Amino acid sequence: MPRLKGRNRTSTFLKSGKEPKTFTVKIVRGLNLASKDPNGKSDPYVKVYAQSLGQPRVKLGSSSRKKETLNPEWVKDPKKATFQGVGSKLIMEIWDHDR
Q1: 47, 90 in Cβ contact below 8 A?
Q2: CA 55, 24, 68 angle in degrees (round to 5)?
Q3: Contact indicator for 91, 50 with CB cutoff of 8 Å
Q4: For residue 77, what pLDDT is reported?
Q5: pLDDT tens profile 53-91
Q6: Are 88 and 49 in contact (CB under 8 A)?
Q7: Would you tell me which of 7, 24, 63, 95 could form a disulfide with 79, CB atoms 3.0–4.6 Å apart?
Q8: Collapsing DSSP states into helix, strand and coil, what is residue 38?
Q9: Residue 15 pLDDT > 50, yes or no?
Q10: What is the mean pLDDT of residues 38-57?
Q11: Which alpha helices (DSSP H) does the chain contain, by range?
């Protein structure tokens, strides 16, 4: 997959044993994000995906966009994403809205 401007990505494996488990992800805040706009700020939002071994990734949801900030908070409108899986990888991408 090509690297796109304005995106930062992190992922982690969720070890749930041999039985499927349910995980809930809550997006609350971002700290010290990279500036992607000429004004020194960004308009960040988060995309959340899950990917099981050997399977294509599945989009679980997205947060709302926060305008002109490098320290966004979604405390008043947190995004929750729930999924089940064995050996699943959680992928969270932080995007700048206009990049």
Answers
A1: no
A2: 95
A3: yes
A4: 67
A5: 788 888 888 889 999 999 999 877 666 666 766 667 888
A6: no
A7: 63
A8: coil
A9: yes
A10: 88
A11: none
- Token reading at 52: 């099981």
Q: State both tokens at 17.
A: 């044993």
Q: What does the chain come to in residues?
A: 99
Distances from the Cα of 32 to the Cαs of 36, 48, 74, 83, in angstroms?
A: 12, 19, 15, 28
| 8, two tokens | 């930062």
The structure tokens listed for 12 are: 């982690």
Taking the chain, what is the end-to-end CA distance rounded to the nearest angstrom? Answer: 17
Q: Cα separation of 62 and 9, whole Å?
A: 14
Contacting residues for 78 by C-beta, under 8 A, at least 6 apart = 26, 27, 28
Phi-psi region of 97 (alpha: psi -120 to 50; beta: other; left: phi over 0): alpha
